[in-house]
């Protein structure tokens, strides 16, 4: 199930199962956290001490 299948219109097509909703939330939160940590680490390498 692609994320574009879930985020359409006003949410009528959102999954009805709570487990699927929580799963998507955890996946998106984890990926955004990982992207933030990666960007912060990259900036840390660029800025001289």
From TrEMBL:
Assigned keywords, A-Z: Membrane, Transmembrane, Transmembrane helix
Name the UniProt record assigns to this protein: DUF2474 domain-containing protein
| InterPro entries attached to this UniProt entry | DUF2474 (IPR018895)
Segments traversing the membrane: 22-47
| UniProt KW Membrane keyword | yes
């Amino acid at each position: 199930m692609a994320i574009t299948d879930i985020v359409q219109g006003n949410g009528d097509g959102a999954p009805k199962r709570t487990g699927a909703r929580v799963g998507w939330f955890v996946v998106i939160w984890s990926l955004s956290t990982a992207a933030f940590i990666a960007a912060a680490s990259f900036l840390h390498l660029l800025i001289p001490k």
